[in-house]
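Question (not urgent): is this output format expected?
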Amino acid sequence: MKIRLILSLGLLLCLILTACSNDDTDTMDTPQQTDTMDNSQQEENSSGASGEYAEIGSGANLVQFPDFEKGIVFATYDRGDIHENIYVNSKEAIEAVQNGEELPNGTVITLEGYKDGEIEHYLVMEKRTGWGSKYSPKERNGDWEYQHFTPDREVAEDDIGRCFSCHANQERDDFMNSMDQMKEFNLEEVAQSENSSTETSIAAMPTEDWMVSEIPAHLNGSEGVSNEESRSIGEKEKAGILQDVLLKMYLRQ
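Got this back:
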């Protein structure tokens, strides 16, 4: 009787130990299974990270063809039969650079390229706050976007990603290849040119049929000024007075 009881207890103990062993096996992964799961998780994480950013250059459509001719040519290059004019859309951008500041939001740089005297292309880079945020930090050029236009000012078929690669090594110069020329540009030439243009347009106005008389000092401002109390002015003196008056009117506007 005792022997049978001992055998029964031994059999029960074996069954309990076997059940515990099976539970441990079910809840643990083998080394091979663990490696497989780790690799799968890494692949998912990797694809998720790359999916967070847009393809470099995919925002080129944001750049519209600029009204660059109203800007300032701050640099020119001649290389064999290639000639390039580089425009910036505002003198405020040049002032910012010369004051040691970053190029402001809204800055547009346009490269007008000629070959054998014929326009060949327009390369445009434009800076807008937040434009670069959709790209990987390792690939973006700050907040710059680029576009290539044909001589007909249509979007050209091109790999805009090359523009990012070309400017990437100029990060210290806000990704501009012609920053030194902008720093050295003489803004006084622009002011002189604007003044000269204004004076020229005024001087060119026909004044032959205009009657200008000198008013005596004591009648200046009086409504009753007669021809007898004034004297005619010569053409040269008349032209000078008219230009002076028109220039003051223009500047007040």
